[in-house]
Automatic annotation (TrEMBL):
Cited InterPro entries: 3Fe4S_ferredoxin, Fe-S_cluster_ET
Origin: domain of life: Bacteria
Protein name from the UniProt record: Ferredoxin
Keywords assigned by UniProt, alphabetized: 3Fe-4S, Electron transport, Iron, Iron-sulfur, Metal-binding, Transport
Entry-linked Gene3D superfamilies: 3.30.70.20
Provenance organism: Mycolicibacterium fortuitum subsp. fortuitum DSM 46621 = ATCC 6841 = JCM 6387
Cofactor(s) the protein requires to work: [3Fe-4S] cluster
Known function: Ferredoxins are iron-sulfur proteins that transfer electrons in a wide variety of metabolic reactions.
GO MF entry, a single one: iron ion binding
Amino acid sequence: MPEDMSGTRVVVDADLCEGHALCIQLAPEVFDLSDEEIAGAAPMGGQWDQGTWDAVKSAVDACPRQAISLLNTSTKGQ
Ligand code: SF4
């Protein structure tokens, strides 16, 4: 089922992340580890294809710390 993910951002809570890197294994084009071994997400939500979004959703489910959130920042309708 198609899903409009435009305006959606992927956010990693640095306070929760423990650097397990499961998210990076699932979606390496989206997640990366910082020097402090805390995952960060590339700031290009909404520009990925459906396969990448599926990988992001798998990472959300797989994260043992539930540190990954999908935030809809769409301002449609202002
Ligand atoms: S899977 Fe979760 S805890 Fe592990 S690096 Fe990714 S965001 Fe951090």
